[in-house]
């Protein structure tokens, strides 16, 4: 078992249950989500439009009910025909049904798209982080990319639409009520703040509980994987019973933390329902008394009674969705912090802009390049050159540092590096920063988490690989850096890739690849064995 077995889940000494996930935004919508995910920005706009349409249909339905009731009950008014009544009710009624369906459907699709987008970005970033620093925590990120990101589904699908409805529906309905009956509007305005006040008070109780539950889940997941990996050793020494007690303790701790969150969620739901019902009752009593005395018009009273309940619905739904929203926000916080250009690992790989504006041809020169790795160096003293008009391949076993050499050429590997990896233009000047990146077409290996965790993906790994390669070749960049470009391809498509790379090199482009594929190595004009050192 690893040392992680001793990490607590928030119910035992050493961990404060009020701990907050680093980087967690206190805003209802984390601004980093909108910055880093284009699907998230589109979904926010769509949710606001649907909320506005639903508010209009609710008001229209309430006005229709008020008109029908007043016309029917008032002896001096003409009673509308049944056909007219049905027509007046059908339009806003069917509109509400259609909008509710559109909200559910679009929420599901938007959540899947946003989660897939964040997983893809995070998986690619973690792959780079592991190569550069060897510090990617597998247990932490495995939980963040699975359980953590899955948690933002309810956040995106329920909380954000409800939030949009809160900011759009409540002021709109309150204005309509004020136009119909100012007294009812004042009563509603006074009682409305009670619900968010109690939401805040209850929220203080749950602060940190969800993050503690996620930490406990990460520990339990790591323990289970350690146990599976170590089963042959445990069986050999007849110690398979040893981890049972520890796993039981962790499981019980996780169960307890989950039940605490659920108890508070049920408590908050009951409190919100009570105050919403009480508020509607106060307005209804006032309307009833004024209808009896004749100080309020029947049409206005009936309309307000119909739509007053809708005034509190967004707040009640917001309270019900609050706990899933906190879990979603906390689950996504680590991923958003990783991808944040201001604080994440991306901020540490940005090169300063250079005044060099290179033009083809280029050459890539490695001089005694050595990069520390687990238990040695990989590569260890790589000296090589990849020139324009040639297809150059870096060969060697897994772990020899082939991918690291490509990243070093892009200045994405720095820690502990000795020697140099430089891209030089025709005049011998070293290209860096945007002057370099604007000339490079880069195809990394598809990260394993991206392939296995991207639930929205429909293409096979090989098909996705071909699509990525086609996209990079179409950019017409003079430098091609390709990491295992024929991986996961059948013989026909692999040979097609080799042909395309040969054509690119023949056209004067600098093509540097890593590969184990004999078909690609045979076609290369220069094959370089990458030296490595493993102690």
Quick recap of the structure?
This protein is α/β, with parallel strands linked by helices. Helix content is 62%, strand content 10%.
In quaternary terms, these chains amount to: single chain
CATH architecture of the largest domain: Up-down Bundle
Question: How many domain units?
Answer: 2
Q: Strand sequence of the main sheet, in spatial order? A: 5-6-7-3-8
Count up the helices: 16
Low-confidence stretches: 1-24, 131-135, 345-359, 447-458
Structural class: alpha/beta
Instruction: Assign the CATH topology of the largest domain.
Output: ABC transporter transmembrane region fold
The strand count comes to 9
**Whole-Å distance between the termini?**
24 Å
Relevant CATH superfamily of the largest domain: ABC transporter type 1, transmembrane domain
Largest sheet: 5 strands, parallel
How would you state the average pLDDT, rounded? 75
Topology pattern, helix = H, strand = E: HHHHHHHHHHEEEHEHEHHEHEHEE
Query: How would you describe the shape?
Result: elongated
Instruction: State the helicity in percent bands.
Output: 55-70%
For the record, what CATH class of the largest domain applies? Mainly Alpha
Whole-angstrom Rg: 31 Å
């Amino acid at each position: 078992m690893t040392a992680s077995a001793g990490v607590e889940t928030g119910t035992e000494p050493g961990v404060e249950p009020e701990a907050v996930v680093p980087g967690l935004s206190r805003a209802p919508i984390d601004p980093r989500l909108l910055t880093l995910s284009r699907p998230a920005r589109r979904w926010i706009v769509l949710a606001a439009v649907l909320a506005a349409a639903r508010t209009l249909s609710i008001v229209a339905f309430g006005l229709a009910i008020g008109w029908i009731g007043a016309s029917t009950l008032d002896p001096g008014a003409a009673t509308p025909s049944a056909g007219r009544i049905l027509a007046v009710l059908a339009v806003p009624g069917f509109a509400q049904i259609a909008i509710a369906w559109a909200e559910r459907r679009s929420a599901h699709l938007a959540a899947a798209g946003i989660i897939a987008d964040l997983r893809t970005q995070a998986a690619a970033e973690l792959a780079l982080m592991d190569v550069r620093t060897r510090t990617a925590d597998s247990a932490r990120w495995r939980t963040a990319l699975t359980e953590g990101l899955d948690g933002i589904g309810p956040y995106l699908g329920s909380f954000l639409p409800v939030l949009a409805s809160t900011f759009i529906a409540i002021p709109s309905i309150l204005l309509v009520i004020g136009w119909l009956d100012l007294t009812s509007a004042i009563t509603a305005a006074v009682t409305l703040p009670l619900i968010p006040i109690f939401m805040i008070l209850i929220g203080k109780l749950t602060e940190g509980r969800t993050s503690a539950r996620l930490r406990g889940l990460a520990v339990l997941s790591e323990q289970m994987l350690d146990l599976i990996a170590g089963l042959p050793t445990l069986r050999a020494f007849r110690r398979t019973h040893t981890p049972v007690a520890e796993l039981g303790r962790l499981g019980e701790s996780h169960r307890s933390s989950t039940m605490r969150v659920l108890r508070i969620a049920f408590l908050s739901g009951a409190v919100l329902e009570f105050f919403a019902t009480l508020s509607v009752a106060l307005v209804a009593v006032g309307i009833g008394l004024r209808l009896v005395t004749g100080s309020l018009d029947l049409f206005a009273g009936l309309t307000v009674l119909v739509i007053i309940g809708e005034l509190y619905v967004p707040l009640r739904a917001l309270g019900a969705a609050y706990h899933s929203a906190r879990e979603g926000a906390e689950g996504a916080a680590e991923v958003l912090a990783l991808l944040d250009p201001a604080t994440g690992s991306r901020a540490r790989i940005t090169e300063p802009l250079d005044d060099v504006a290179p033009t083809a041809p280029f050459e890539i020169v490695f001089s005694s390049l050595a990069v520390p790795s687990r238990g040695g160096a990989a590569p260890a003293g790589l000296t090589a050159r990849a020139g324009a008009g040639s297809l150059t391949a870096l060969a060697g076993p897994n772990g020899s540092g082939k991918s690291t050499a490509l990243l070093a050429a892009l200045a994405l590997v720095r820690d502990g590096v000795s020697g140099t990896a430089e891209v030089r233009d025709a005049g011998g000047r070293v290209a860096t920063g945007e002057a370099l990146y604007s000339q490079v077409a880069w195809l990394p290996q598809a990260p394993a988490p991206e392939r296995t965790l991207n639930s929205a993906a429909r293409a096979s790994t090989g098909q996705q690989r071909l699509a990525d390669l086609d996209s990079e070749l179409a950019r017409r960049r003079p430098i091609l850096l390709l990491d295992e470009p024929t991986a996961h391809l059948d013989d026909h498509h692999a040979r097609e890739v080799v042909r395309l790379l040969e054509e690119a090199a023949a056209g004067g482009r600098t093509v540097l690849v890593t590969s184990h594929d004999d078909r690609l190595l045979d076609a290369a004009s220069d094959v370089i064995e990458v030296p490595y050192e493993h102690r």
